[in-house]
Fold these 2 entries.
Entry 1:
Amino acid sequence: MSCISLSLLVLIAVVIHCTSAFVPSNPTKYSSLHTPSASNGLLPVTKMSTDSSSFDGAEVKETTRDRFRGRNVLLTGASGGLGGAMAIQLSRMGVGTLILSGRDQDALKEVSDECLSLIGNDGAGECPTKVEIIKCDLSETESVRSLGEESLKFCSPGFVDVLINNGGISSRSSFLETTPEVDELLMQVNFFSGARLAKMLVPGMVEKGDGSVIWVSSVQGLVGIPSRTSYAASKFAVQGYCEALRAELASSGVTVHVASPGYIRTNLSKSAIRGDGSKHGQMDETTANGADPNDVAVTILDSSADGMADFVVASSFSAKAAIWLRLLAPSFLNKMLVKRFDKEKSNS
């Protein structure tokens, strides 16, 4: 390794150490650690609590409650781990109408019931929250269109104030083992469905002069990981789309936010699909050791309410290092990714 490469690695390690070493006085809150902006190729890295032993410890800031209170919110992927955690937080804030969407009707009902049991417990009192559930398969265009139409009907006065595109699916096969149909499915679920909902709901926000689109992407939308070609492509599409959309809406009063989490302790890897369309059906070690979904939910909502446009929610050193390496030492990052893929092949 050259002296220059070694120096870059040392610099990256120092920067990541400095942005990870701070421990907030209140461990249930995150602390925003601002690195250079996304326009310079780097994103703000958001620190979360490492103590995630109980859900009760994860709560949004009061300013976040104020930002969301009384607003009509559509949340996709609400029956999953991260979506369910966000739904609980939103119900505690006193949002106006909370629309929960997902494929599993029974799971949605469970999340809805829990949300309803919490409404009013935050002391807001002024704005009782209405919770609605809409079953939707993001892989089907007509189902997505129906979700947008039904959401507008549920809201008074006919506007969705906040769209949270959280629903998604992952993949677990190499490029050569992945069919074009799986590529298209990943793009439809992770990108086109959210873009369609934005097309349906953002015009109302623009008309009102206020609103937000919060898109849950991934660190893999910033760094392409082997055996995730379809997934990475769909998440890179989200990043580029939102950067352009944010510029177009800058003077409209509508804000666009992209959250890029690292690994989260949910069932995402179990529900991931292989290159032939079959279920992966396994809990990956990286996922099992990932961040707590409640902490991630709080961080996403707080960061969006604080006006952060693009931000990384990563609990691991490797996720942060990969982002810095892509900018400062891309050749070295590529060698690391090749090594990772070779190891995967030898273990399969």
Entry 2:
Amino acid sequence: MHGLMFLLLLLVVFFYFVHVVELSGRRFMFLGLMSFFRHYVLCHFVTSSILFFKF
């Protein structure tokens, strides 16, 4: 299960960097950061749900 969490985190970080590179603007960095936090919270919620239902 720890491997799955690490994989999710790696995927989120990858998408975050892709998002930042696509925008590549200083005034869009805040939006990118908010998007990153939304993805992080979503993945954390999904992982917690999986752990909760598995055990």
